[in-house]
Amino acid sequence: MMKKLSLMAAVGWLLLAQPAFADDGPKYDPRGTKGCMKCHDVDAEKPIMAIQHTVHAVIADADSPFAKNNRGCESCHGPSAGHGANLQDDEVRPAPAVNFNTTLGLSPVKDREEACLNCHQKQGHVAQWQGSAHEQADVSCTSCHELHTQNDPMLDKKLQAEKCYSCHTNERIDSNRASHHPMKEGLVTCTDCHQVHGSNGPSLLTGFTVNETCYSCHAEKRGPFLWEHEPVTENCLNCHLAHGSNNMRLLKVRSPYLCQSCHMQKGGHDSALNLPGDSKFDQKGCVNCHSSVHGSNHPSGIKRHR
């Protein structure tokens, strides 16, 4: 009997002691978002008020950090009562539990990712994030996205490319070449071709192949044709540079040199067409006759193929 009483007393002591242990961890600020706004207002060095004009502040959305049953700022930053506490003059303010800026030291990439994926994992466009090229390179969500601003540059066609160029510097150079996709003009942006959160295609492309991605805009090049051009059906990048070129139409090399890289000793005539006195071929190139280079219903891709 005494052993049973001793055992029950020990269990009771553990149950009573459990809340004390739980209280040792980080705590949520009882003031909620109001405690944050006290310092991070519109005039602060790190203002956050602009977030109220974004989808993250739509209180009617149950997934919003500011929805009725969520914790506002601490939905993303974690329990951070210590960060918002009143400090003595000699005390150093600790960082939030999950910190997204460098002022007080960035939290590990894994913690920052988890804060976002807690809500966004259910969305299809981030389903392949785990194991993607950006995830493996330790790129976190907030490396690209800006939350405490009314206009996230990653969601703005005119601003998105500049954010990508901060890492992809070679693509910035290519986009300023004579021939380029209309990115500077705001008509095309990186995510029109690339699925930045993960993809089944190469180089994070939106399509399963390079050609499938290109055909999403250039459908007229898909065919079918009676006579396919093998380099085209294999890969558009056999002839084109995707991000920019100093040759017309994003070509790797200007015609006829591009054509001669394959057709130098093949075909029905000498590719040099060195015919003195025959003005028909003077100052001409391959595409003056073989204009349907992406495929044709004429065996040589000549204009008059009907």
Automatic annotation (TrEMBL):
Gene Ontology molecular functions: oxidoreductase activity
InterPro entries: Cytochrom_c_NrfB-like_dom, Decahaem_cyt-c_DmsE, Multihaem_cyt_sf, Multiheme_Cytochr_ET, Paired_CXXCH_1
Signal peptide: 1-22
Key word Signal present: yes
Cytochrome c-type protein NrfB-like domain location: 73-155
Record keyword Heme present: no
Domain Doubled CXXCH motif: 180-222, 229-266
Keyword entries, A-Z: Signal
PANTHER family reported for this sequence: DISSIMILATORY SULFITE REDUCTASE SIRA, SURFACE LOCALIZED DECAHEME CYTOCHROME C LIPOPROTEIN
NCBIfam families, sorted: decahem_SO, paired_CXXCH_1
Name of the protein this chain belongs to: DmsE family decaheme c-type cytochrome
